[in-house]
Amino acid sequence: MAPATPSGKQTGRKPLMAGNWKMNKNHLDAILLVQKMAFALKEPDFEAVDVVVCPPFTDLRSVQTVIEADRYAIQYGAQDVSQHASGAYTGEIAASMLAKLGCSYAIVGHSERREYHGEDDALVNAKAKAVLGAEMNPIICVGEGLEVRKAGAHVAHVLAQIDGALEKIPADQVRRSVIAYEPVWAIGTGEVATPQDAQEVCAAVRTRLAELYDGGLADQVRILYGGSVKGDNIAKLMAQDDVDGALVGGASLDPGEFVKICRYREFPA
Ligand SMILES: O=C(CO)COP(=O)(O)O
Q1: Which end of the chain is more exposed for a tag (fewer CB within 10 A), N or C?
Q2: Is the ipTM above a cut-off of 0.85?
Q3: CATH number of the domain at 16-24+77-266, out of 3.20.20.70, 3.30.420.40, 3.30.70.980, 3.40.50.300?
Q4: Nearest residue CA, atom 7 of ligand 1?
């Protein structure tokens, strides 16, 4: 049973703090960054939260070496993956290659992939299936842009992305998937969603999961919030019933800040 959050919520879901380094840090920088995090984090931190870093592909081997050599409890994953298993796909990385490197997670459908690489829900769905097929856990990103938010259509928009991303994925695989709600207008802008905004959408996602799958699955899937998460705003977000963790961009590049996020319980909400 996971420990209670500051608000006293008791969900049974272990919180997950994932750092998305995006296109930052080379494979040598990565060694230093992971070591700094690993030195700061202690056993009780890992009992309280799952800690995941998602560096660029070129850093994964370095990160694996540091983590395995010293048996750090930090987990790691990739920021993207190919939907294809293998073959003539120049520049692509297969899920099986990531699994072989010890990755536990792969982010799929990040809004930057959707926006700059034209990824749609069908592709996100195919990538999630590839990740699950390789026995890893996808972190499936959803979230609305500013125009959709202003029009008040954010919940419908996100639920349509959920329906698309999860299409024909069986319950036992959805159970080990992670959903990350990242409103595009909050990413890298310093404008974090209010805890109520985050809760509204995360709760709607959970309700949708309950509609799509039975057997209590909706209560088991972790739903993260992402978008300008920092050490001083995480506790209020985590106090929300349906927010089970964070997908952190900029602040995950600062080991002190990321460790503070992982230790949100020590700071008042
Ligand atoms: O996109 C994000 C994580 O995937 C969020 O980025 P920031 O935390 O820098 O806003």
Answers
A1: N
A2: yes
A3: 3.20.20.70
A4: 249
Q: What's residue 4's pLDDT?
A: 53
Nearest-CA residue for ligand 1 atom 3 is: 249
Say which residues have a Cβ less than 8 Å from residue 47's Cβ, sequence separation at least 6: none
Q: For 73-128, how does the pLDDT look when each residue is reduced to its tens digit (9 = 90+)?
A: 999 999 999 999 999 999 999 999 999 999 999 999 999 999 999 999 999 999 99
For residue 59, which of 102, 94, 36, 29 has the smallest C-alpha distance?
29
Q: What is the Cα–Cα distance from 180 to 107, expressed in whole angstroms?
A: 9
- Token pair of 75, please? 């987990």
**Catalytic annotation on 182?**
yes
Q: Which residues of 23-57 are buried (b: 16+ CB within 10 A; e: fewer)?
A: ebbebeebbebbeebbeebeeebeebbbbbbbbbe
Q: Report DSSP state, residue 231.
A: T
Q: Is 84 a catalytic residue?
A: no
181 alpha carbon – ligand 1 mean position (Å)? 11
